[in-house]
Amino acid sequence: MGAIRRFDHIGITVADLDLVTDFFVALGLEVQGRTPIEGEFIDTVIGMQGARTEIVMLHAPGGGTGLELSQFASPPGEPGTHDAAANVLGLRSVAFEVDDLDALVARLEGNGYGLVGGIGEFENAWRMAYVRGPEGILVALAQQVS
């Protein structure tokens, strides 16, 4: 009987692999590898012939679930909605627990990425904010309240 062993990674297809990789590195993720992929394997898995992609795998310090960024050279990527609100159907956000929400938000704002709304606090337990990154990627940042 088959069963899930672990949650391995989340994949995001992007138009500018370097820009989006730099954004997630600025958040604190570490690049684990970068590689081009083409041929029968990728064609079979994604159901498209002649696919060529380059991927970057990132992880938080200490490991855990990964983040895979993919940029397609063939077939070319299809544009999505870069300013989708939280109630738009589909992948809503990528979430990270952080140790200093205010410092990270300030650093991201210095890089040109601002808050979607503001920093909220939930029941004196969590502080949370959404930041819109490159290509409209929505990142949820949460810090436990001490």
Automatic annotation (TrEMBL):
GO biological process terms held by the UniProt record = L-methylmalonyl-CoA metabolic process
Q: Which GO terms describe its molecular function?
A: metal ion binding; methylmalonyl-CoA epimerase activity
Database matches in InterPro entries: Glyas_Bleomycin-R_OHBP_Dase, Glyas_Fos-R_dOase_dom, MMCE/EMCE_epimerase, VOC_core
Q: Which domain of life is it from?
A: Bacteria
* All copies of domain VOC, residue ranges: 6-144
Q: Does the keyword Metal-binding apply?
A: yes
Q: Which UniProt keywords apply?
A: Metal-binding
| A Pfam family annotated for this UniProt entry | Glyoxalase
- CDD domains membership: VOC_like (cd08353)
Identify this protein by name: VOC domain-containing protein
